[in-house]
Amino acid sequence: MRPLKIFLASLGFRKTVLGTIPPLGIMYLAAYIRTKFKVEIRIVNQKLDNMPDDELVKQAREFGADVIGLSVMTTNAYGLPYITNGLKAVLPHSLIVIGGPHVSAFEARSLEGNMADAAVPYEGELAFEKIINAYFGGGDMADVPGIFRRTKDGIISNPGIISFIEDIDSLPFPAYDLIDLKAYWRMPVMTASMRRGYISLFSSRGCPFRCIYCHRIFGERLRIHSAQRVIEEMKFYIKNFGVDCFEFEDDIFNHDRKRLFEICELIGKLEIRIGLSFPNGLRIDELNEGAIDALADAGMYYCSCPLESGSPRIQKIIEKNLNIRKYLENVKYTASKKIFTFGFVMMGFPSETEEDIKQTIEASCMSKLHTTAFYTLAPFPNTRVYDIAMSKNPDKLKSINYDDKEYPHIRANFSDMSDETLYYYQRKANRDFYMNPDRIFRLMRDFPQKQRLPLYIPEFFKRLSKGVFS
Ligand code: B12
Ligand code: SF4
Asked: If you average pLDDT over residues 10-27, what whole number do you get?
């Protein structure tokens, strides 16, 4: 019997200076599925070279795909109708399955307006395996719990749920052998890597916190890779791909502090000195000086430090419940080690007032953060903040266009302030934060990839001039 041909694509286009990271979702699926079936797998990341939709369809046809798996974020979902129509036209007998955060957000509605056969929310490995089994093994997709599927009677939500994988150490390493890793080294890296041989890791799944704006694709219980497994994976990439820099995309890498220390200690025993960056994954108030020292010694040079709001009242409402004092202390200590610290703030939360926003600006300005992005809240479906925004201002919510948007380009206001006031404070935040000689000096001194600094200078002046002149 010939191997089953599986074509996996991550959809979307790159529009700004931001690059793209290796498509971990479909790389995990590929690695898992090839342990279960006799398959030939091709992986495409549309963002890597902004591949036109027609080219993607052509590649699937030339490959002769039996199964097509499309990974979709809500910002890229507008491409689904055209792409799935094209795929069905050239490969009418293939099975099209969609998955990724968009399906977790829109659930059964993710099948509306396109030609996909099935949709998988949340963690994908087990569901994808069951779907392939049902479709090609003579079973019935109606028996796969928790998925959505198209039938001649319409879109059906299968009852039940597929449980999360308990022991994630049982998963194989993501299929880095199926992508051109070096192509990613030629693109801008999310965290301005000082070295070029970087790789993305996802060393835990799930998060026990309950921020109301978050999807928690991997559930509310933290499941970790053991420290030994993380190091084994690192060693594998160092040896086989010449990697010297690791970027963690976890939801919350540091919740298990014991594991953090173990990982750092084992990194110290590696044969080479590596770089570590955290574009995601650190909850800053859960760190302490010991943990920051350990991460710094292990090679951390960059970390994102989400604050979201400097108002204790808003922290409660959004259920992030960040300890702002601890946050500021830990940022200060991290920055004192010349580790680049990047803050994130959201403005315009439901019920937010001028008083709250002033506290956010004060906390940001008082902090030792090198940079901060001051965004406005964009609620995504299937989050609790979406439901709140829906009850408050459904028309405004429905008018949000998510297509192709990156952080700065979704503008919305669900606060108790007028748009004028909110955007005034957003500009003020940029102005007050960046008009600080000490911050500018540290930013230039500690930016990890000096040769790329000129690329970011226009963005810096754009933010600054917004604050100063408007
Ligand atoms: C790294 C990251 C980014 C990076 C790179 C994203 C990329 N892939 O290119 C950058 C910085 C560019 C980014 C940007 C944004 N991001 Co982001 N990001 C992440 C993050 C932290 C990790 C992604 C990752 O690698 N996960 C690990 C892999 C293993 O998980 P996965 O891809 O979800 O795959 C699993 C399942 O989804 C499923 N699956 C996936 N694909 C498929 C396909 C099939 C066929 C099947 C069956 C299953 C399946 O199975 C996989 C394995 O279990 C996630 C948080 C998270 N926990 O995932 C947010 C997340 C994906 N981002 C999110 C958001 C909101 C954004 C922004 C819109 C933010 C904004 N307001 O601007 C922008 C959008 C940019 C754009 N235009 O595309 C949301 C998604 C919301 C949504 N409904 O789409 C997430 C989930 C954060 C959250 N907790 O809410 N992001
Ligand atoms: S800490 Fe991060 S991953 Fe966890 S719920 Fe909050 S935003 Fe989501």
From this structure: 87
pTM above 0.90, yes or no: yes
Nearest listed ligand to the Cα of residue 75: 1
Residue of 463 and 346 predicted with greater confidence:
346
Location of structure tokens 């911050």: 439
Copy the structure tokens of residue 60: 């699937």
Backbone angles phi, psi at 67, to 5 degrees: -125, 135
Alpha-carbon span 8 to 245, nearest angstrom: 26
Indicate the CATH number of 191-464 among 3.40.50.2300, 3.80.30.20, 3.90.230.10, 3.40.630.30.
3.80.30.20
Q: Which CATH number fits domain 4-157: 3.30.420.40, 3.40.50.20, 3.40.50.280, 3.30.2350.10?
A: 3.40.50.280
For ligand 1, the distance from its centroid to the CA atom of residue 101, given in whole angstroms, is 6
Mean predicted confidence (pLDDT) in 365-378: 95
Element (H, E) at 67: strand 67-71
Judged by its nearest atom, the ligand closest to the C-alpha of residue 283 is 2
Mutate which of 163, 184, 215 for ligand 1? The one with the most ligand atoms within 8 Å of its CB, which is 215
Yes or no: say if 282 and 330 are a contact pair by the CB < 8 Å rule: no
- Residue 425's identity, in one-letter code, is Y
- In the chain, domain spans: 4-157, 191-464
DSSP state of 376: E
Ligand 1 mean position, distance from CA 73 (Å): 6
